[in-house]
């Protein structure tokens, strides 16, 4: 079970370009030297506060995340520190651009989700660049409150019909997981779309035009869902491995 740490940074609008540059050339490349991955960066375009920069960083588990902290083992290993000397110099001023930040965690299912971070040792291969549809693509994040005992059925319905249909629309299933600070019967799903138009064609009334088996699956899944909340991240960096939508 991997984790994604999603952090919202309050950065003055005039400093956003520099914040992204130092992140892209410094922090995120440094993460690859730690075996972690930056999987999505941008700003909330719908459903979230518009005055923050958002990062989504993937780790193999909480021990991996702990090792990457300032007090963690990776920062007391001379060989690993030497590997990151250049990238750390690029991002040395980044903390001064941040007025405040806050974070929460998503645990994700390794088999259903895209990220593949790992505990890296000095001299070993770097973590992969995460796939990206690039600038102005979007990531839909939806939290579902599921009826007690029905989470497995919720996932099964999604796997059988809904997520394959998203892929047919050119989307990528990024994360299937849950918030560890909330009740067990909930799910967090992150799906990447090449554009906001691609996303809109799978939502609400547009989904009624989906094939009958997909529309039926959406209806069955809705019956298992007490509540859902969604927000849309607009990607604001070219960092990552470009993939076609």
List keywords for this structure.
alpha+beta; eight-stranded antiparallel β-barrel
Walk me through the structure.
The chain has 245 residues and is of the alpha+beta class. It is 31% helix and 31% strand. The protein is built from 8 helices and 10 strands. It has helices at residues 16-32, 62-68, 78-83, 85-90, 151-168, 196-200, 204-207, 212-223, and strands at 2-11, 37-46, 53-59, 98-108, 131-132, 138-146, 172-178, 186-193, 225-235, 241-242. The strands form 2 sheets. It has an 8-stranded antiparallel beta barrel, surrounded by 4 helices. A two-stranded parallel sheet has the order 5-10. Helix 5 packs antiparallel against helix 8. The chain is globular. It starts with a strand and ends with a strand. 35% of the residues are buried.
């Amino acid at each position: 079970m991997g984790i994604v740490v999603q952090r919202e940074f309050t950065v003055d609008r005039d400093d956003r370009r520099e914040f992204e540059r130092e992140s892209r050339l410094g922090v995120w490349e440094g993460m690859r030297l730690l075996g972690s991955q930056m999987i999505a960066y941008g700003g909330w375009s719908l459903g979230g506060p518009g005055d923050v920069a958002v990062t989504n960083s993937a780790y193999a588990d909480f021990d991996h995340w702990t090792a990457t902290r300032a007090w963690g083992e990776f920062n007391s290993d001379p060989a690993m520190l030497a590997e990151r000397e250049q990238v750390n110099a690029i991002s040395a001023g980044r903390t001064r651009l941040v007025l405040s930040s806050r974070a929460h965690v998503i645990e994700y299912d390794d088999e259903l989700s895209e990220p593949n971070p790992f505990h890296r040792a000095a001299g070993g291969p770097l973590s992969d660049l995460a796939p990206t549809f690039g600038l102005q693509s979007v990531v839909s994040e939806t939290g579902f409150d599921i009826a007690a005992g029905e989470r497995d059925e919720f996932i099964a319905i999604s796997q059988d019909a809904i997520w394959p249909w998203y892929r047919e629309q050119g989307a990528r299933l990024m994360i299937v997981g849950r918030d560890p600070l909330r009740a067990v019967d909930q799910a967090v799903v992150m799906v990447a779309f090449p554009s906001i138009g691609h996303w809109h064609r799978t939502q609400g009334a547009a989904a009624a035009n989906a094939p009958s088996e997909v529309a039926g699956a959406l209806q069955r899944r809705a019956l298992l869902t007490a509540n859902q909340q969604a927000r849309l991240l607009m990607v604001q960096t070219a960092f990552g491995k470009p993939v076609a939508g």
